[in-house]
């Protein structure tokens, strides 16, 4: 019986690690996208593009925060890869998560 439980625990730990790594990759991707959109906003000279980047940045911030909340709710560890946005600090992102 103990061997069965050990195997189940090993399987559970492996699945948890895979999920953690997947979430980390999604968070890193969202962080990169947030930086890209922020750079686009800063460099934009066209009024229509500026408006686009405003909405895109807001959507990217929401996605990033959502992924951080998922990570924290899984209780892997504290929030990883925090990024400061022109709108929010790291502390604000953690408090919202």
Tell me what you see in this structure.
The structure is a single chain. Helices cover 78% and strands 0% of the residues. With 97 residues, it is mainly alpha-helical. The protein starts with a helix and ends with a helix. Residues 81-87 have low confidence and may be disordered. Helix 1 runs antiparallel to helix 2 (47-73). It is built from 3 helices and no strands. The chain has helices spanning 2-43, 47-73, 90-96.
Structural features:
97 residues; mainly alpha
Produce the secondary structure layout:
Blueprint: H1 2-43, H2 47-73, H3 90-96
Helix pairs in contact: 1-2
Number of DSSP strand runs:
0
Tally the helices.
3
Low-confidence stretches: 81-87
In N-to-C order, the SSE pattern is: HHH
Tell me the strand percentage band.
Answer: under 5%
Q: Which word captures the global form?
A: rod-shaped
What is this entry, summarized?
By secondary structure, the protein is mostly helical.
């Amino acid at each position: 019986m103990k061997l069965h439980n050990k195997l189940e625990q090993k399987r559970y730990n492996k699945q948890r690690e895979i999920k953690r790594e997947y979430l980390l990759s999604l968070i890193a991707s969202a962080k990169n996208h947030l930086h890209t959109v922020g750079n686009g906003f800063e460099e934009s000279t066209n009024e229509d593009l500026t408006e686009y980047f405003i909405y895109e940045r807001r959507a990217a911030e929401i996605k990033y925060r959502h992924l951080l909340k998922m990570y924290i709710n899984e209780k892997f560890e504290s929030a990883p890869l925090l990024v400061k946005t022109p709108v929010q600090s790291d502390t604000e992102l953690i408090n919202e998560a």
